[in-house]
Design a protein that fits this description.
Blueprint (H helix, E strand, L loop, with lengths): L4 H16 L8 E4 L6 E9 L5 E12 L6 H20 L9 H14 L11 H6 L6 E8 L4 E6 L4 H9 L4 E9 L9 E2 L5 E3 L1 H8 L3 E2 L1
Parallel strand pairs: 1-3, 5-7
Antiparallel strand pairs: 2-3, 4-5, 4-6, 5-8, 6-9
Length: about 210
């Protein structure tokens, strides 16, 4: 489905009453054609003279209409962002973006209201194939100690750091680096820390044939 602002505002009010005791103030909800997120909460942190965040203001909730999702997934995306809103608006300290408190609230909503909230939206193969943007990709293809092949698409400023991490990792037997502009690699996250994504080498190799070794 393609949600409208009116639909999302009505669902916001419903889920606010259902999951948050109606305590969340209304905020602007805007539609986007972004391919990099399904839902996103943005706000402006206000800091004191020491640089500490004392409150958050100017909340905006953005929902992408690029993805053709079932209605239940659109609703789950909205609730997911409302949890972020609740934590930020209340000034709750969590262990990470999707930390202990976020997961506690998410589990509670799933249990009490029969929802299927997850940490992130998993793109379908059809959605991945639609992303045909031509971009620069810096790739590390790792041969793992257990015989598998893994791929890491690396943020350019973190190449040296991730090279060092893999060099000392007992999991990684060898690593080969490439530069590519093949849109197929858009489906992988651009990593700023060492992460390994196992791939089928027969699927990967055609996309490396035109890549430039580094």
């Amino acid at each position: 489905m393609t949600p409208t602002v009116e639909y999302l505002e009505e669902r916001f009010d419903t889920f606010n009453r259902m999951c948050f005791d109606g305590a969340l103030p209304r905020i602007p909800i805007k539609l986007s054609r972004a391919r990099t997120f399904v839902g996103r909460l943005v706000y402006r942190p206000v800091r004191d003279w020491r640089g500490r965040v004392v409150r958050r203001e100017d909340f905006v909730l953005r929902i992408s209409t690029y993805f053709d999702l079932p209605e239940a997934e659109v609703e789950d995306t909205l609730i997911h962002e409302m949890i972020h809103y609740w934590i930020a608006w209340k000034g709750i300290q969590d262990t990470s973006t999707h930390g202990r408190e976020f997961r506690r609230i998410m589990k509670e909503i799933n249990t009490l209201h029969g929802r299927h909230l997850t940490i992130s939206h998993k793109s379908t193969p059809e959605e991945q194939d639609r992303d045909t943007r031509v971009r620069d990709h810096w790739l590390c293809v790792s041969q793992l100690a257990d015989g598998r092949t893994a791929l890491t698409v690396v943020a350019k400023p973190r190449i040296a750091r991730i090279k060092r991490a893999f060099r000392w990792s007992p999991t990684v037997r060898s690593q080969t680096w490439y530069h590519s502009r093949d849109p197929w690699f858009n489906r992988f996250p651009r990593c700023r820390s060492p992460k390994l994504f196992p791939v089928d080498p027969t699927v990967l190799q055609p996309h490396l044939d035109g890549a430039e070794p580094l």
